[in-house]
Structures are given as C-alpha cells and as structure tokens.
Model the fold of this input.
Amino acid sequence: MWVSNINESDGNIRMQVDFRNSSSATHADPADLRLIDAQHHSFRFTQDPAGCTHWSRTEFANGARYGPVTICYRPDSLAAPLTLEWNPDMGMFCCTADLKIK
Done:
C-alpha cells in the first residue's frame, strides 16, 4: 500500500492510496484501514465528502494494482499525531502496519 497527497479540508483528512500486489496481499478493502487520532480513537473511512472515492473490497493478484483511490476520514480532531492503520485480513498470522501521516 502506497499513500500520497495527504491534505486536510473542512475537518476531513484526505489521502490517495494505491495498492500493488508486491506481497501476499490479494485484495484492497476499505474496512482494513482505520485512522487513529491523538486520543487513540479509531475512525472508519467516510465517502460523504466530495472527491472521496466510493469503493469496496477488490480482489487482485499476480502483480496487479488497484488505485489510486482517494480515501477520507472525519476524525474528532486533526491534531497530531494521526496514524493510518492497515490491518488486512490475511489469515491467522498476519500483520498490522501503522503509517504516521501527521
């Protein structure tokens, strides 16, 4: 997962996410992503703001790509730190990746 073009507007944080099959990941799913704010509250993506991509789980494999998609979050506060947590459902023994975005 590659994240770029992070910006804030009207209480929302927006970013572009591009998924590339360079690991054992076989899907992209917005349910695997959460924004964690400075108070450790967790937020799911929102598709309401203009320009936010409406997407659902997408299967891909063998070097395929999905995206970029624009994902948006509306946390209680945009104060740092903000962390994007990726927790793909890839079985019993997997991973969580945290990307500090602010």
The chain is about 0% helix and 45% strand. The longest strand covers residues 12-20. The two ends are 17 Å apart (CA to CA).
